[in-house]
Amino acid sequence: MGANASGKTEIALELARRLGGEIISADSKQTYKLMEAGTAKPRGAWTDTPDGRFYLVEGVPYHMVDELDPRATYDVGTFVKQAKALMPQIWNRGKVPIMAGGTGMYVQAFWNGLDELPPADPSLREKLAAITAAGGKEALYAELVALDPAAAMKIPPGNIQRVMRAIEITRLAGRPVSQIWSGKFFDALPAHEGKFIFLKWAKELLTERVKRRTATRFDEWAQETRALLAAGYAEDCPGLKTLGYPQMLDYLAGRINKADTIRLITAASMAYAKRQNTWFGRYRNAVRVDLLKFEDYDPAAIAERIINS
Q1: Count of CB atoms within 10 A of residue 187's CB?
Q2: Which residues 6+ apart lie within 8 Å of 23 measured at CB?
Q3: Considering only CA atoms, which of 209, 300, 220, 162 is closest in space to residue 38?
Q4: pTM
Q5: Which CATH architecture has domain 8-114+187-308?
């Protein structure tokens, strides 16, 4: 676990090679097809093997990436269902399951379970999106405060997706979402069932890593996004609403220049990284790997430490 650009994929691959493992991606963006540069999806290829057809990265099966059309939606419930099915299959092949990703809600829901909640309502989502477009995240948050003050106290105003979902559940269920939450979701992760690792970079170093990665992949990212638009994908399709793509769309439309695009993507990525680090930082039973200088990032050494911890 860790923020975006923290090097989770490289360490997961190192662990997979040493342990004979297969990787389950806990990343809400990398599940999409046709989106590599902007999601930092590990580069691999779909390959037929004696055990089935897998997306192989450096010879390692990497599950739950490169599967979904960018027009499709993907949610935590779908992730949990797929991952729960995959885990025993991996063990039955004599391999070790390694989950890697930065979508904290996916990790939490897999290990601690989900409350039974009503499914998303597209028409209601559109109305809530209209409220946000007209009055900003403050207007959306005010709506939650009015409906369920207890839930509002537990959700950051800036987390639009969580605020929107809380409002949606409250309206669809006919009672406050705070009365529906069991609280189990936020229990400590079950250390007796797995080993949990949190990669924590110093802020200034992570900022530099995000900036470098964005700049290095920029031209490929722009070309990839142009290809999606040319193929008929709408700018507001779920895939193109993921982190960084709205800024890239503004760049391609000529509304901002390259330097500003890199700056804005870096800022958005770091805002997300702050939320990720806050989320993962709550796990007191996780092995925390502090990265205080660039030289601290040595996937082989970190993998060795994880195995021996």
Answers
A1: 12
A2: 12, 13, 16, 57, 60, 61, 62, 63, 98, 99, 100
A3: 220
A4: 0.84
A5: 3-Layer(aba) Sandwich (3.40)
Compute the distance between CA of residue 61 and CA of residue 51 in angstroms, rounded to an integer. Answer: 10
Among 82, 109, 81, residue whose Cα is nearest residue 165: 109
Write the DSSP symbol of residue 100.
E
Nearest-angstrom CA–CA distance, 86 and 147: 38
Amino acid in position 204: E
**Secondary structure (DSSP) of 170-227:** HHHHTS-HHHH--SGGGSPP-TTT---EEEEE-HHHHHHHHHHHHHHHHHHHHHHHHH
For the chain, residues classed under CATH 3.40.50.300 are: 8-114+187-308
Which helix (DSSP H) or strand (DSSP E) does residue 52 occupy? strand 52-57
122-181: CATH number = 1.10.20.140
Give pLDDT tens digits for 155-201: 999 889 899 999 999 999 999 999 988 766 667 889 889 999 999 99
